[in-house]
Amino acid sequence: MGVSGPLLSTAGVIAAVVAMMVDGRRAVAIAVVCLAAGMMPTAATFGGGPGVAVLGVSAVAAILLAWAGWIGGRRLPWVAGLDPTVPASAPPDRLFGPRSVRAFGAAVAIPIASWVSFNVPVGQVTAVEGLLFPTAYAWTCGAIRLIAAKTVEDLAVGVAMVSMATGTAWLLRSGTDSVPGAAVACAAAPLAALIASWLAGRGSRRLRPEAEGEA
Questions:
Q1: How far apart are CA 173 and CA 159, in angstroms?
Q2: Rounded to an integer, what distance in angstroms lies between the CA atom of residue 130 and that of residue 7?
Q3: In a domain, 211, yes or no
Q4: What is the C-alpha R_g of the chain?
Q5: Is residue 212 included in any domain, yes or no?
Q6: pLDDT digit string (tens) for 32-86?
Q7: What is the band of 104 on the pLDDT scale with cuts at 50, 70, 90?
Q8: What is the mean pLDDT of the chain?
Q9: Furthest C-alpha separation in the chain
Q10: Which of 142, 102, 94, 110 is nearest to 21 (CA)?
């Protein structure tokens, strides 16, 4: 059975767009899960079951570590710290705010990823033009989100996107032989979810006393 290029591209692009635009304290975990689901057709094609397992484990680990980080940040007896969801400048819903910049970046990433997918050879996909597009698009969107980051949460989502895309690209390089390298590359995604959720949990501890004082 041949590779379905449209399926790979559509799934990967939709996942990258969702990860690019998601906000909130669960943004990192949501981005990792979406990218894992969107990249699984590519991973299955070139890495088989082990490749799919790498992405699946990364998604599950991101969910569990995000939950553990949130609980730990709220309950451990440390001083409340930085809230990772507070923007450094314009609010998310304003023109030229974070979401407007990311939407523009997602559009700019299309021609960049297209050029990469047709001109950069990567292992098994050297002779299959265009199959690198979803991975290149997710990686480019992640890099743009890092550059345009306004919050710590943005930085964590960007790291997760680049990590998942790099892991998938590693699978394309040499299939099942590259599973260990792909697993190492994807490991940064759940760690980013853990850090962001822990900071969010600590930030929520600071907000609770303020709300009680106002009441």
A1: 21
A2: 12
A3: no
A4: 18
A5: no
A6: 999 999 888 888 877 788 888 999 999 999 999 999 888 887 776 655 556 666 6
A7: confident
A8: 78
A9: 65
A10: 102
Residue 128 DSSP SS3: coil
CB 44 within 8 A of CB 172: no
Lowest-confidence region among 41-45, 95-99, 170-174, 208-212: 208-212
Alpha helices in the chain (DSSP H): 5-21, 27-75, 98-119, 133-147, 152-174, 179-186, 188-214
Any domain includes 215: no
Tell me, yes or no, whether 119 lies in a domain: yes
The parent domain of residue 189 ranges over 5-206
| Rounded CA separation 50/140 (Å) | 25
Q: What is the pTM of this model?
A: 0.76
CA–CA gap between residue 17 and residue 34 (Å, rounded): 9
Closest CA relative to residue 189, chosen from 164, 154, 165, 153:
164
Domain count, the chain: 1
